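queue> holo job accepted (HDD)
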Amino acid sequence: MNNNDSSKNGAENKKNKQLNAFRVNNKGKKLTTNQGLKVSEDEHSLKAGVRGPTLMEDFHFREKMTHFDHERIPERIVHARGYAAHGEFEVYESMKEYTKAGFLQDPSVKTPVFVRFSTVAGSRGSGDTVRDVRGFATKFYTEEGNYDLVGNNIPVFFIQDALKFPDLVHSFKPEQNNEIPQASTAHDTFWDFIANNTESAHMMMWAMSDRAIPRSYRMMEGFGVHTFRFVNDKGEGRFIKFHWKPKLGVHSLVWDEAQRLAGKNPDFHRQDLYEAIEKGDYPEWELGVQMIEEKDEFNFNFDVLDPTKVWPEEQVPVKIVGKMTLNKNPDNYFAETEQVAFHPGHVVPGIDFTNDPLLQGRLFSYTDTQLSRLGGPNFHEIPINRPVCPFHNNQREGMHRMTINQGPVAYHKNSLDNNDPSPATEEEGGYVHYQEKVEGRKVRQRSESFKDHYSQAKLFWNSMSDVEKQHITKAFRFELGKVKSKSVKQQVVEVISHVDTALAEQVAAGIGVTAPEGIEPSRETMSSPALSQENTVKAPATRKVAILAEDGFNGEEVSGLQTALKNQGITSEIISETLTPISSREGQELQVDQTLLTSDSVLYDAVYVAGGADSVSTLKGIKEATTFVNEAYSHYKAVGASAEGTELLAAAGVETSSNAAGVVILQGGNSDEFIQAIAQHRHWARQV
Ligand code: HDD
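queue> job finished
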């Protein structure tokens, strides 16, 4: 199904209908200038004679060129590289007891959403699979105005106070003298920041974990990070944290694969999302909420206002409250994905802020940044940013104003217009800020309760499986191995020592510094199983399998496998040396999807070597084929083959004994075990 046909998906959705008014289709139309004048010629500028100078009079040339010269806008200062999709959100049951937010009341209501995923550090043209935090920003177009949940795929943040955000960002962006490295934290300034701002210790552990190299946007959790507040119609408030839980589970790449992908397909994540939606494999997330009663604010060993802390799910359960489905790709990247403007301050009645000092600073930054990025104060009028409910106020004029406000009055209070537009009472839906009592002296200080930087870093470490711990250790060795300053490396190892001595020793050994002695690591013994990806959903749906085959392949076996995979929602592609259709040993032709040159094992979740003696022997003679299988194996992916195909596996260095993890030799065409192996995603027991 082609979801870009806006008459299909989401056609009933109010946002989609609103956007229809702005969608343009050139089919069967004549070429015109922006003034609507039909153009008779679009290849030659107006000249004084065929070999003469171009004339100033050529308004068509001037208009076309001027527009082109100004096609670019500044990229986002952070989260520049992103990809988005439309969808809808539905609540499972009314949340009236906790919040009066309209979109969380009625299970029969579907609220349109637009979600943009992003990397943080890289520029707009950087690779998708770099080690980084991923942005997860959702705009809910509710009947009470737009609500933006502007989160990340990691539940904590580097810093506790927004005043430090410019410093953090300057440290991880390319270094200012030479603009190197792009989209990477593996350099001196970032690690210098970490070493000297130890509130980052917890986030540092997450950033070195597999969470920072997701397999797909569709397989990431999302978190609101801050503590927000739900307020119900009785005016009662509760502290809350938001979670997005992917139905497909949380899965990651391996680091070597992530790096190769950055070259083989820098668009890996965006293409994955785009194709899944085009195919009708709509990604889904459940919305979860953790709640803490106000009276319990001080009953935890973390401060609920501290954005470097999680609320362990085992301590504060996540209540699943609704589901989001992404079901339509944007029609135009720039108009929608690039121009969408999120802001944590876009709230609706029933959702309010807390005094988290990071959140408070964000409430300033987002509108401010759109002023230069989108060129003025009217960016709310850009179609993707418009609410689906009416909006009226006395704000006027400014760059690119589109609204035509009628009448002479543009002020409040007035009598000439009957005091319209007039403020709404709370009963009429007017937003009333939660009446939290605040008092205090003006100070530039951090609360004592924010000063424990290591307990939760240790809690995270305690929660990891052995394999995840190995990955974290290697990630530190990689990142710090790229740092030039020995002093910075030494300082970071000292920070790690405050988390875990053994980890610090292993990192130190890998990067040529001494493991510090006498630093007492955190004594935290708690772990949170929910933080480990080992405990996630493991299902085969939407995985991608490469089937290697050449002339003489076993046609019956391949078509049987293709059907079995399809029945489980797995996509398969035929890969061969050239794009010329291949013939099975039964004499039937099969289309080839990719060649061994255009594809690569890192683009797939699993590989299968088709049977047929001639096919296998041809593949054995092609270096790219053995490399393909070898890499899939060394990236711990499921590897399958017919009995005949095992010859290629052996040539590729794959262990084929009956107990080899995730290596499946299909018996009698039965692919169940292979599908099980694909569902496992990775086979860590393999020694490679
Ligand atoms: Fe931010 C963009 C998420 C802290 C200032 N941020 C941005 C985006 C996401 C986040 C997902 C991209 C939105 C999009 O797709 O357009 N930011 C976060 C999270 C944070 C966080 C989860 C911590 C919990 N951010 C943060 C702070 C500040 C900013 C502390 C400044 C005080 N963020 C910005 C920004 C951006 C932005 C400069 C750049 C582009 C934009 O806003 O629209 O204003």
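queue> The domain at 462-534 is CATH 1.20.1370.20 (Hemocyanin, N-terminal domain).
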